[in-house]
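Target chain:
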Amino acid sequence: MFATLASTSELSAQTFPSSVDICMQQDAGAGVLRISLRANDQDFGEVLSGLVFTIRWPQGSPATLGLTASAWCPPGQAFNPGPSAQVSPGNGFKYKTWTSTGFALLNAPVDISGCAQTLLADTWTEVLTIPFINGASTLFQLVNDDFTFADNRDYFISLNGQWIANGDTLTGTICSGSTSISSVVDEAPFFRLAPNPTTGLVQIMAPSVPNAWCEVLDATGRSVMTQRLNAAGPSMLDLTGEAPGVYQVRVNSSEGCKTMSVVLERP
């Protein structure tokens, strides 16, 4: 008993990451959703004591989400996420929530319930894959929205039994999109964004037509920026002052309207 208390005290004295972000990458080719975590400013290999996140997709989609798998940590160890039942609250979406409760050190050997893993500082680490069925054309999103807030399904993380460290919550930002692509190109090359992901500045290569303009929307659909585009060449968008996450860039011109996603990361 006294050894356990001492161990808990030692854990509490450790330096925590400033926060832990979560991102979902939809891999249509492999038919899976890839869930990644990022510990900000500090490595973390101790107890990932609690994790909650929710994925939604359109009510009319025939898609379902299958059993999860993790190449990062064996089943039943220090990281053991499991899904809820699928729910449809009547707001146009289906939802499924994953939770994990851990008691062992992430960096402990597998034979004593650990994962032999560490969340590296400022690095996206893929921790989980979720297969989807009949969902090739379905948009899945990792979200905090009105339903997840009211039903206690918002993204949440706790480390060593604590969800606040140094006066700030450890629960960081969420995003849905790729964390590994260098540029996004539309199938019909209407416009391009690079770099993507970005830490602030993103170049937009749009049609060389007069009166083209773009609007940037955050995850809630709020417009955070409108800008007229340069008809003679590339334009630059500056998202430096915005919170990390996934933004929609909508370009309007005489050739039509197209929307693409850009992932804004911490510098």
In short: The mean pLDDT is 83.
